[in-house]
């Protein structure tokens, strides 16, 4: 079939049909879905087609599933538009952007109580998943160096994780051939807390990952208890095992709302910390951060060096070209909010989470798993015996009809027989919006409770992936 013949086919599933209002003389009113069109169209036409398509995505502000920021101030959006063209990897072409990146991770090193923030090492990343990959690589390489120095084999590294860990750690273990040793959660130990940790670590353990804000429930893992357990293990076996703190969410909440909680570089065993600038760092999607305690925590053979303005700039990343605009947005927010501003924003989100969890926990249908007092995230299950006619998947579908995205999913290994729903309260989700959500939630629960027979037994669509 020639291209000209292919371009005039009008099957609705293979073409996008243009509203006549937006077509101009000489323009096609049909665009192929899966092949590049033969000719050009006007900017306004192409804009309208894409605009109308993504309109079907729904309202991101009503997405209570995502941790990723969905709102910023007008000035931030203006700065974003002005710096779309910045490439973060071009540090010699954009030296000021590179300098601002360094300022940001130095600020984070100070926020996370690095012994000497000036001696810390850090970088921005596309997100906290890339940051976790870099953290894992650093742990593995440090372990390899120690093993080789002792003339021991390096072919069987392992890393210890909670079964509630985010999927990026599963990817790390798969991609870089590290055995994942999962510590299952339980009702008695709903997070990794150091209990029986000695069963999982050995001379091949490159590190232990602690999560500041488990994605399933929002709860902090007690890093101090994990560190104390590893201290005891070292006293008994001589094994000196470092900790990486996956603070994707909590590392930008705990310093402001729980400043006395010891989880960061105040613990000598903590080698590195990552966070998501685009979560509770309050930036639009596409930004993560990782900071190492000092240069010893990041093996030099993993670092590449570029020079700019006659100076040396170390770089360590999986990606090459990537946006620099989000780094500038993070700096904008650090200047705009300061410590007091971040504390106020995070406290407001926590207040909304506590309000919602209190109201939901008071409903007969639900039993809380967490209340949002750590990070502003909480989860609940259907109360045992409440109903045989519906479950949380049905409720999730009913809420979606109102525009709300609230996932239902099983808890991780050890508790996988329990299904929960979870809400992430982000900046921009106001008390007023929370009240509107509660109204819809109660309406849909009343509808489901009034059923006289079970909902159809269909296969539930996977609502969420960790």
From TrEMBL:
Q: Name one Pfam family in it.
A: Pyridoxal_deC
Concerning NCBIfam families, the annotation shows: Glu-decarb-GAD
As for family, the record states: Belongs to the group II decarboxylase family.
> Gene of origin?
gadB
SUPFAM superfamilies the UniProt entry points to: PLP-dependent transferases (SSF53383)
Originating species:
Arthrobacter liuii
Q: What is this protein called?
A: Glutamate decarboxylase
The region called Disordered is annotated at 1-21
Q: Quickly give the catalysed reaction.
A: L-glutamate + H(+) = 4-aminobutanoate + CO2
């Amino acid at each position: 079939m020639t291209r000209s013949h292919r371009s005039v086919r009008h099957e609705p599933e293979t073409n996008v049909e243009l509203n006549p209002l937006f077509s101009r003389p000489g323009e096609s009113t049909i665009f192929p879905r899966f092949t590049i069109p033969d000719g050009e169209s006007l900017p306004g036409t192409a804009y309208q087609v894409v605009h109308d398509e993504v309109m079907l995505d729904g309202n991101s502000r009503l997405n209570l599933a995502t941790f990723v920021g969905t709102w910023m101030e007008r000035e931030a959006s203006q700065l974003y538009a002005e710096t779309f063209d910045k490439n973060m990897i071009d540090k010699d072409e954009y030296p000021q952007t590179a300098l601002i990146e360094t300022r940001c991770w130095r600020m984070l090193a100070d926020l996370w109580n690095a012994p000497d923030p000036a001696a810390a090492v850090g970088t921005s990343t596309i997100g906290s998943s890339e940051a976790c990959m870099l953290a894992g690589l650093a742990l593995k390489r440090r372990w390899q160096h120690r093993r080789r120095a002792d003339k021991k084999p390096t072919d069987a590294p392992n890393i210890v994780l909670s079964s509630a860990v985010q999927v990026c750690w599963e990817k790390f273990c798969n991609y870089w051939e590290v055995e994942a040793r999962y510590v299952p959660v339980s009702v008695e130990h709903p997070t990794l807390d150091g209990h029986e940790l000695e069963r999982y670590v050995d001379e091949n353990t490159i590190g232990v990952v602690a999560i500041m804000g488990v994605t399933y429930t929002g709860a902090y893992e007690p890093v101090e208890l994990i560190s104390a357990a590893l201290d005891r293990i070292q006293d008994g076996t001589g094994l000196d095992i470092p900790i990486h703190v996956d603070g994707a969410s909590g590392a930008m909440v705990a310093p402001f709302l729980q400043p006395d909680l010891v989880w960061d570089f105040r613990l000598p065993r903590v080698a590195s910390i990552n966070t998501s600038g685009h979560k509770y760092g309050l930036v639009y999607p596409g930004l993560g951060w990782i900071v190492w305690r000092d240069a010893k925590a990041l093996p030099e053979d993993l670092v590449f060096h570029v020079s700019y303005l006659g100076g040396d700039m170390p770089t360590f990343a999986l990606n090459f070209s990537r946006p620099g605009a989000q780094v500038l947005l993070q700096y904008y927010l650090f200047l705009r909010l300061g410590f007091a501003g971040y504390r106020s924003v995070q406290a407001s989100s926590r207040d909304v989470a506590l309000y919602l969890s209190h109201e939901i926990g008071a409903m007969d249908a639900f039993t809380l798993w967490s209340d949002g007092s750590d990070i502003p995230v909480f989860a609940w299950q259907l109360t045992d015996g409440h109903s045989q006619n519906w479950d949380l998947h049905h409720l999730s579908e009913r809420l979606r009809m109102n525009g709300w995205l609230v996932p239902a999913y099983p808890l991780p290994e050890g508790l996988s027989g329990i299904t929960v729903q979870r809400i992430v309260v982000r900046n921009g989700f106001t008390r007023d919006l929370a009240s509107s959500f509660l109204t819809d939630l109660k309406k849909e629960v009343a509808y489901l409770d009034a059923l006289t027979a079970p909902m159809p037994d269909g296969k539930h669509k996977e609502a969420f992936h960790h």
